Structure of Cytochrome P450:
Amino acid sequence: MAIMSVWSAQAILLLLVPSYFIYAKWRRKTYPLPPGPKGWPIIGNALDIPLTSMGPVYASWAKLFGEIMILLTGDLVLTSPIGSSIISASALGQTIIIIDSYDVAIELLEKRAAKYSSRPRAIMAGELMGWDNVFAIMPYSDRWRNHRKRLVKYFRPDANGISVHSPRAYEFVHRLVLDINETPNELYDLVRHTVGGLGLSLTYGLPIQRRNDPLVKFADTIARILSDNIIPGKYLVEVLPALRYLPSWFPGAGFKRYAESVRWMSTDFKIQPYERAVEAFETEGAQPCFVSDSLASFESREARAVIEEIQDVAATIYVAAADTTTDAILSFIYALATHPELRKKIQNEIDTALTDESGSLRLPTFEDQEKLPHLTASVMESQRWAPVTPIGVPHLTTEHDVFDGYFIPKGTVIVANQWSMLNDERVYGPSPHSFNPDRFITSDSDGPEGAVKVNPSIRHPNRIAFGFGRRVCPGSHLAQSTLWLTAACLLTLFDFEMPLSEKADYIGPDGKVDQRFDPGLLCQPRRYSRDIKVRSSKAASLLEGLRMGM
Ligand code: HEM
């Protein structure tokens, strides 16, 4: 009996395995890949894949390569593409799918998250330079899940959606406005230093100097090297992984020699600040932080593994938080410096809401958000108009899928074109390339005559700007809180102007990213000159009060 059942099991297997492959092949044949540009043999679309202005270029593909509509006009038959919310391309055998619509992003990245939540292999930055401990680039796995859980637990929001770390955000933002008052020409570096310092303080609890803090400088150097080397397409080894086995001395293996020369950085950044944090726990000046909080709630797993995990997550925080939040703040300042009429409108709103009966002005707090709808709308609009991550961070599929009649193979790189979703006229109204916070404003029927509020029925840009599904940004509450508070404090205290010749939209008239912005993976206005002054005597006395209290 037993032998019979082994035989029949084998026979079934013999029949099933080939049938599975035939079925898989048939399915691939039955369902085509989504439409997209025609590629060359072997290299596919490798020469078409944009390395700059990706958001608008991919959006133009979505318009161009959709289904064909046939128009009959008299004897004439015209064909016109009607666009597609999902398109595909390939580069050296790697399939890439670009999602151009919010609804499709929700369907695939959120509702079918179990298949769409991995990340493409990062050979240069991860495997060769040693940053594979950063969970933002880890594949979908238990290791990633454990790391992410730790970060989510610490960076949670309160009941009003504000980061639980808002007291530390106040401390750093108040320091920032004092520093800008002292050296307004250093605005760019001061914002960077403040955001980095806040991230490191929350992670390691170490005291951070107001300027030129050595830990912030070290972290900043490292983050720049990492972000320069994570650019897709920069290294051939990303598409031909076998190249990673070339010996370092081999001609053309310069990438390996470079990776080896900077590999120490990933180890040092993981170990050094962690050890300093642990030593500093008992010393004066150290504050509660991610490391102290995580070590206090040790779980039953082996100690060494837990410590490694805490070190890894701690190292992830700076690299994920610093550039992104800095860029969001700099884009906001750029937008308001080039739209003086909007800035004045918001400052009037601030004066009305924050001036007490005796006529003195106070600094804004998170409790003021509802009283400052124009300010909140302008923060939302800056995230929509110049999104920090125009094409998000790519996901990778871990199973075959079929969507809307299209085949999406396992191992496909999925790009969510956030820029395109944030420029959807059907959602955000006409002229989406222009900076116009009023698109988020509506009348408030519960308030006094003429009162306005943020329109809750227009999709909040944060719903798109922080990504989707199981990989959605776990630092979004801290980022939003820091951005709103910085914007509110800056507008309360300062006037900032730029020559009108410097005014530009993120997207220029040619449909590409304007030269005043970085056209790469992160959107950042290039260094700009502007004139910053304290805006009134009330603002000056507020700054003086703040200085005395520090
Ligand atoms: C304005 C500021 C920020 C923006 C626009 C932003 C945006 C994003 C986006 C688009 C993703 C990818 C989501 C996806 O794959 O679908 C992401 C991931 C991530 N972000 Fe942020 N982020 C910001 C600030 C922060 C901050 C302050 C932190 C840390 C406290 C943080 C930590 C992370 C981490 C760890 C990931 C990787 C998540 C994973 O792979 O599971 N981010 N962020």
